[in-house]
Amino acid sequence: MKTRLVMGTILVTILAVSGGVNADLLNVTATVRDFSWTSSPSAFGYVVEVATGFVGATIGADRKPVYIGPSTGTATTQGPDSFNQWYNDVPGVNLSKTITLAFDNGMSSPGGIYTFYTESFFPIDGELGGNQGNDHNFLFTMEMHTQFMYQPGQVFNYRSDDDLFVFINDRLVLDQGGVWPARDDSVNLDTLGLTAGGIYSYDVFFAERHPVDSVLRVDLAPVPAPAAVLLGILGLSAAGWRLRRFA
Fold first, then answer.
1. How does DSSP assign 9-24, residue by residue?
2. What is the mean pLDDT of the chain?
3. How far, in Å, CA of 71 to CA of 79, rounded?
4. Of 93, 139, 180, 206, which has the maximum CB count within 10 A?
5. What Rg value do the Cα atoms of the chain yield, rounded?
6. From residue 137, how far is each of 7, 32, 221 by CA, in Å?
7. Which of 35-49, 109-123, 198-212 is predicted with the least confidence, judged by mean pLDDT?
8. Residue 45, class by beta-carbon neighbours within 10 Å (0-12 exposed, 13-18 middle, 19+ buried)?
9. pTM for the complete prediction?
10. Is 95 strand, coil or helix?
C-alpha cells in the first residue's frame, strides 16, 4: 500500500508540471497581433537601425517585456505607451488571433533540439486587418509562452527580422531589438545557471515592422511526456524496488 501511494504522488506531481509532448513535431500556440499602417502610425514607427537595450532584464509580472527606454522613445520606438500596445490587445489599435507554430527536430524519432524556422513568416496574410496593399500582411507582433527541460550541452539558435526578445527562467537572454535585415544569434544554456533536468519558462516576443521581409527561427527543447519522466524517476534496480516494496 505504501508503494502505491508513493508512486501515485510522484505521478500526480509530474502531470502537474509537464505540459509538453516529447515527439518529432511539437506544436506550440502563440498570439499574433496585427496593426494598421494608417490607424496607428505611432504604434511602431521604424528606422532601419539596431536598437537594443529598451527592454528590461527580467520579464514583467504580466509576462510581457518591460520597456525601459526613455519616455520620448528611441530611434525605433515611440516610448512606453506605444510599446505596451505591441503585446497587448488594444481596441482600435490592433487585432489578434491564436496561431500554432510547428517545431521539428529533423528526425523521425523524438529527441534533440526542435526548431521553428521560416524565411517567410507571414502567419496572417489576408486576415485580421488584411495586407493593406502589400504582398503580405506586415506590421504585426507575435508572443509565445511555453516551457522546456534543460539538459547540459543545449544551445538554442535564433534568426529574426525584425525585433526578437527571448526570456528563459524570466531573464532576458536574447535582445535583438531594432529594425534591420535578418540576423543570427545563439544562447548557450550552460551559461544560465540552470539545473539539469529542470523545467523552465520560455517566453518569446517578435515584431515585424518593415514591409520587406519577415524571418523567424526559434529553437526549443521539449518537456518529456509524463510517462517518460516517470520511467526515468523509477529507473531503479529490481532489487531496489523489492526492498522498498517490502520495507
1. HHHHHHHHH-----SS
2. 82
3. 5
4. 206
5. 21
6. 51, 12, 30
7. 35-49
8. middle
9. 0.80
10. strand
